[in-house]
Amino acid sequence: MKTSRKEITRLLFDTLWGKYIERVSYAKKYSDLVIKKGGKIVFDHIAFRTLNSHTGEQPEGIRAIKHILNFLDYKPVSEYNFSKKKLKAFHFEHPDELFPKIFVSQLEVSKLPGWAQTAINKTVKNTPYLLSDRSIGLLRSLEENGDLPVEAAEYLIKDLVQYFRRPWNIPQKDDVLKINDVTQYGAWVLLHGNSVNHFAAYINYQNVKEWPDLETTCKGLANSGIPMKEEIEGERGSKLRQSATQAVKEEVKVKTDGGIEKITWTSAYLELTERNHFTENGTTKLFTGFLGAQATHLFDMTQTHDN
Known about the structure:
By secondary structure, this protein is an alpha+beta fold. It has one domain (about 1-300): 2,3-Dihydroxybiphenyl 1,2-Dioxygenase, domain 1. The protein has ten helices and 13 strands. The chain has helices at about 5-25, 25-35, 65-70, 115-125, 135-145, 150-165, 175-180, 185-190, 215-225, 290-300; strands at about 1-5, 45-50, 75-80, 85-95, 100-105, 145-150, 195-200, 240-245, 250-255, 260-265, 270-275, 275-280, 285. A seven-stranded mixed β-sheet has the order 3-4-5-2-7-11-8, sandwiched between helices. A two-stranded antiparallel ribbon has the order 1-6. It has a two-stranded antiparallel ribbon with strand order 9-10. The radius of gyration is 19 Å and the shape is globular. The chain starts with a strand and ends in an 8-residue tail after the last helix.
């Protein structure tokens, strides 16, 4: 028996989703509500954050995620620049349009103040590479043959899942707090590393009768007690509309002069995406990309005012 590359990719995302809803209670509640109403959970995209810095044995920046996507039949489609936030991003797509897009961003560490560069670089410079040699071999075999024996596929999925966490040592508390004043994105990545930043539910395929669009979904979630972003990004009927739950908070470890302590910090959130058709050169098609202004606002969902 063999497991195809497509099935391995699907199982990887399903496993990451299972771990994500353990951390993000709002996503778990959304999932429960949609299923209870007879709907479906379909992902529009999954987002990751990275640091464009020397990260030891792990590829730097976007390459930390891209080099894995290369083996899973994903291709880069569009590039985005967020100069005010010192961020760059790419989104990747799978040949199957119902597979989630992958949105990977990176902080341009070299554009930060010198002290912030030093603090980040010293934290991540000795990062180990979290995938085993066996997994690298299996990924190459998967790329070449398109499938793996079932047992090998199970091993690979398990190893890939553990890659999506913080790979470097516990950061210094003072570094996190100071960097947060300059770039909350940078503080978040120091604390959470390769962890999923967010899943985005695809409203178009939700199939909940009383929640036919983004407005009704956001209102329904708010009425169910889920704290929501106040605004919807994008006008009604526009090619891309997005909103989100607030980010959950969790205790994370940091280093101090006295040892290790825990502080409360923003973790992840659930995004909601509605896509519409648009006309270009006389052809009507579904918009599959992202819009810079919307993404800029959604980056701020992990901002914390408590630290």
